[in-house]
Amino acid sequence: MQRYFVPISGWDNHEVILTGEDVHHISKVMRMKQDDKILCCDPEGNVAECQITEVTSSEVRCKVIVWLDENKELPAQVTIVQGLPKGDKMELVIQKGTELGTHSFIPFEAERSIVKWDHKKAKKKVDRYQKIAKEASEQSHRNRVPEVKEIHSLHEIMDIGKEYDWALFAYEEEAKTDTYRSLQDVIPNIKPSQKVLLVIGPEGGFSEKEVEKLKQSNFNSVRLGPRILRTETAHAYFLSALSFQLEELG
């Protein structure tokens, strides 16, 4: 059953009103009509099975049939701070990170980021990434759509790290030493409902200055396996390991 995320303005007691691109998707792509059923998610993560009552060119009206008791969210709230990568790699991080349960994303302009955002166009980029997160949430049957936040500086990252139970950064040098902090030292200690912040560097990794500042701000470096991962792969390694620990091992 097709899933749609409806803002709070679209809910009115037992009626749901979908607008915008969802109308085109329902009527033109899926070719749905009156009496067809869809799933609608509200901003709080609640999911309702709904029946379409009316389809027009500007909106789709539905009635709530039943609220479902389901939760597809990763038990821990993980924020991925991604150093700006080249090309369309950020889109891949947003898409796959959403599928794997990321709670939110923060683009990070690192010293070694080859790409530098034009701040005048930054909002358009974030809006595009938010759309990708919404589509990936629908595809993966999430209860919520991850928030893609505006670009942050290192100073801002260090400041918000204080709000998290775990503030980590994936450091490739940890993979090259005999004495390192592995995921095995971290993952089993992360509990459901805890907040985790993971900072990932761009293609060139972190500068020594950035590493020192992160450590001074009580961020813990962690090794993501013995191999050096691409910047667009690192988040998936971490999220997969955490999902296995919290959702499969129980």
Note down, in words, how this protein is organized.
By secondary structure, the chain is an alpha/beta fold. Helix 2 runs parallel beside helix 3 (122-139) and helix 2 (89-99) packs parallel to helix 6. The chain has six helices and twelve strands. The strands form two sheets. The chain has a six-stranded mixed β-sheet. The protein has a six-stranded parallel β-sheet with strand order 9-8-7-11-10-12. It has helices at residues 21-29, 89-99, 122-139, 154-160, 208-216, 231-248, and strands at 3-5, 11-12, 15-18, 37-41, 47-55, 60-68, 77-83, 104-108, 147-148, 166-170, 195-200, 220-222. 29% of the residues lie in helices and 24% in strands. The model has no long low-confidence stretch (mean pLDDT 93). The two termini are 28 Å apart.
Summarize this structure briefly.
The protein has 250 residues and is an alpha/beta fold. Helix content is 29%, strand content 24%.
